[in-house]
Amino acid sequence: MSHFGRSGPPDIRDTFSLLVLNISFRTTADDLFPLFDRYGKVVDVFIPRDRRTGDSRGFAFVRYKYAEEAQKAIDRLDGRNVDGRNIMVQFAKYGPNAEPIRKGRIIEEAEKSRERSRSRSPRPRHRDDNRDRESRRQSRSRSRERHGRDRDRDYHRHSRSRSQSQSLSPEYKDRRGGRDDDKHRSRSRSRSRSYHSASPNRCSASPSKRPTPHRSPADNGSPEKQTNGKGSPPSHSASPVPHRAGSRSPASDGKE
DNA sequence: GTTGAGCGTT
């Protein structure tokens, strides 16, 4: 029972994946198994680890055999204090193979055909009510990236095209002299996490609305204006020598 | 020893 995630996925044919977030970094699958297993039949528990360090990322995946048990576990374990941290249990949105998951269950072709006219609603009894989930921590930490686990992906992204510089230095913004626009740009601090397959319903945005607002051509024409106008690159520093109170020289360094 | 948004492996 302690070999979760060591032999790969056992069988995700009809298993419901639950995503457990906000778990302690010390929490292991073995610790979550008894907690979730008491509410239903847990098929497997997996906690993604870091490739470099191998530490837990802070979230785990619990696969249930039945959705009803999974839902019960969510309602029971969601917001529960585990290892000193309030864990958040919810249905997984994406599958291990980048497959879309519906209510924690991987969408299969067979099921899609079945939706033609079969079960009206698998669970029409209750709806996802945001009772105390809304009380989840609003204060999102400013530091989304601690070590840079997305660094690998961003690294490649930068190589392709960094038209939209996510990290805009304040100095660079002053150079352009357009702070107002920056504010708007700062608003859309989307992580730009383009998944392989996004939900169609969510992508049903108006075509007229441009998802990627390009900056005004005027800004592009004169992205930066140097007061000197000489065209000196900003990389060059204007203050070469940081003279100190007693500018010591190698020639007269004999005395302190 | 630390961190704290999110979506997964043999």
UniProtKB/TrEMBL annotation:
It comes from the Eukaryota. One of its GO terms (molecular function) is RNA binding. Keywords: mRNA processing, mRNA splicing, Nucleus, Phosphoprotein, RNA-binding. Residues 103-118, 126-137, 171-184 have a biased composition (Basic and acidic residues). Residues 232-243 have a biased composition (Low complexity). Residues 103-256 are annotated as: Disordered. It is found in: Nucleus. One of its GO terms (biological process) is RNA splicing. Residues 16-94 form the RRM domain. GO terms for cellular component: nucleus. Residues 198-209 have a biased composition (Polar residues). Residues 185-194 have a biased composition (Basic residues). Its main location: nucleus. This is RRM domain-containing protein. It comes from Zizania palustris.
